[in-house]
């Protein structure tokens, strides 16, 4: 892993016990409970560290997740909606997190808004699957991606803060 | 991976191919569930790129064209499919393509008896039974590919930021690969979880979802 802070944040997230994917009718509900537990714990840790940066929730059977993530840059908060499906081969394959509103604005993104993660992510996930869960995906995948991409996009003028968007629309 | 899982469940023979993002290498692979390595049997294989750093103007970016390499690999893939279906020539189990030096390593990787995919392991059992029942046939052709052993020496690593000792501990089983092919990464064998696990909870899924929403 590249970042000490990331490594520390991830090591505090509890690992998951049940290796089950969405097709395991018997064990998936248990896995889903563990996912929620780990996510709740992670968000609480973030709040305690004054670094609360995302929310997630799922549909009833936990196969589709949506939420928001935000990033503070120069005292302004930029919010984005995010979404992903749980792949058939989860937890061996990680879900592909997508931020549809940024589609087309950065090279680090596949069509449809799926974020492109660095080479570090895949081996890390493979080594730790199935103990890694969605909380780890957030911490290791989306978090670092936002940290790198959002300032860059703001700098290039591709992402405007909502207030400025409203002002521009009013003019 | 999803296709791999499906084919393992159905016992479907299939071929897959891939091209590296920097367009300097690619490969095709024939997968027979139970007999040859499935997609999950080993970490992704990397055909050595042999990029001469001095020819790169930008960091790690080579001038190679992705559609061109894809075209080459697509042609090789279709060729292999035709050979399989129409029964001519020798069907390659694995053919790598190193575009920088026009090097085509080939090999035959057997299935991993400890593959993560349950159906791969089931297929392997079925395959062993079929092989045992089949009468012995004289094998005439010379095997060009190297024989693969499970108990082994630790494969060749491309880039390593850790010491050799740490690397050996972290490597786990690595297939014995011919020159020019390595694994993209290794998976350590030890099962010990290095962190806290989620605890047992009395709360139901609905309660957890509600708790999440209130955060």
Automatic annotation (TrEMBL), chain A:
GO molecular function list: UFM1 conjugating enzyme activity
One cellular component term from this protein's GO annotations in UniProt: cytoplasm
Active site: 116
Xref: SUPFAM superfamilies: UBC-like
Key word Cytoplasm present: no
RNA-binding in keyword set: no
Functional summary from the UniProt entry: E2-like enzyme which specifically catalyzes the second step in ufmylation. Accepts the ubiquitin-like modifier UFM1 from the E1 enzyme UBA5 and forms an intermediate with UFM1 via a thioester linkage. Ufmylation is involved in various processes, such as ribosome recycling, response to DNA damage, interferon response or reticulophagy (also called ER-phagy).
UniProt name for this protein: Ubiquitin-fold modifier-conjugating enzyme 1
Native source organism of the sequence: Pleuronectes platessa (European plaice)
From TrEMBL, chain B:
Pfam families: ThiF
Signal peptide: none
Source taxon at top rank: Eukaryota
MF-aspect GO terms: ubiquitin-like modifier activating enzyme activity
Limits of the THIF-type NAD/FAD binding fold domain: 2-116
Protein's UniProt name: THIF-type NAD/FAD binding fold domain-containing protein
Biological classification of the source: Eukaryota, Metazoa, Chordata, Craniata, Vertebrata
């Amino acid at each position: 892993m590249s970042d000490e802070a990331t490594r520390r944040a991830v090591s505090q997230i509890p690992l998951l016990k049940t290796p089950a994917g969405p097709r395991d009718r018997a064990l998936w509900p248990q896995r889903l409970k563990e996912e929620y537990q780990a996510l709740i714990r992670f968000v609480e840790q973030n709040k305690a560290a004054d670094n609360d940066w995302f929310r997630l929730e799922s549909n009833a059977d936990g196969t589709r997740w949506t939420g928001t993530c935000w990033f503070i840059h120069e005292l302004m908060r930029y919010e984005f909606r995010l979404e992903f499906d749980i792949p058939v081969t989860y937890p061996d394959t990680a879900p592909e997190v997508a931020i549809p509103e940024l589609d087309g604005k950065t090279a680090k993104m596949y069509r449809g808004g799926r974020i492109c993660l660095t080479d570090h992510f895949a081996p890390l996930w493979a080594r730790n699957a199935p103990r890694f869960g969605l909380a780890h995906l957030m911490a290791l995948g989306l978090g670092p991606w936002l940290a790198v991409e959002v300032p860059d996009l703001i700098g290039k003028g591709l992402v405007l803060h909502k207030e400025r968007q409203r002002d521009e629309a009013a003019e | 991976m999803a296709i791999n899982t499906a084919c393992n469940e159905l016992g479907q023979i299939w071929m897959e191919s891939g091209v590296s993002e920097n367009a300097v290498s690619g490969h095709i692979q024939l997968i027979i569930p139970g007999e040859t390595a499935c997609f999950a049997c080993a970490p992704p294989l990397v055909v050595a790129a042999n990029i001469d750093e001095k020819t790169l103007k930008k960091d790690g970016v080579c001038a190679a064209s992705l559609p061109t390499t894809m075209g080459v690999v697509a042609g090789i893939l279709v060729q292999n499919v035709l050979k399989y279906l129409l029964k001519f020539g020798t069907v390659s189990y694995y053919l790598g393509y190193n575009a920088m030096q026009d090097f085509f390593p080939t090999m035959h990787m057997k299935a991993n008896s400890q593959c993560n995919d349950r159906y791969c392991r089931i297929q392997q059992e079925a395959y062993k039974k079929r092989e045992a029942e089949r009468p012995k046939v004289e094998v005439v052709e010379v095997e060009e590919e190297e024989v693969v052993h499970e108990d082994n020496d630790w494969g060749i690593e491309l880039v390593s930021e850790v010491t050799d000792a740490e690397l050996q501990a972290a490597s786990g089983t690595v297939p014995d690969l011919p020159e020019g092919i390595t694994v993209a990464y290794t998976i350590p064998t030890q099962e010990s979880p290095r962190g806290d696990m989620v605890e047992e909870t009395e709360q139901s899924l609905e309660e957890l979802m509600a708790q999440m929403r209130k955060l």
